[in-house]
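Write out this protein's structure.
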Amino acid sequence: MSSTAPVVRPADPSGEVLREIPLPPYVTGEDAQFAVRAVVVHAPRRWSGGTICRNDASPHPCRLHRWGRRVLALHGLPPAEIDALIERGDPAAVPRPHRPGA
């Protein structure tokens, strides 16, 4: 059975169902910059109840963090480079598309 419906995440505390943020039709440099900001600002933080979003305390990964990772992956960055951007913690970092063998 194939599903074409958007991914639905659990309801937030207000009871509203949260859907994934749509991806851009193609990733521009500006989209990549917004994505870097999203993954850095919405980075994981260890808390007594588990891992939460550093920005809004929702369960990690939050919607914006997931969106940012997906956009950066479409931009050509492998997961290790996305993790390195998050580790550096610079929301203004310029992501370079990954080019194997370059």
